[in-house]
Amino acid sequence: MTVEQIFVTSTIHNKNLLNNRSQTYQSKDK
Question: Is pTM beyond 0.70 here?
Answer without folding.
Answer: no
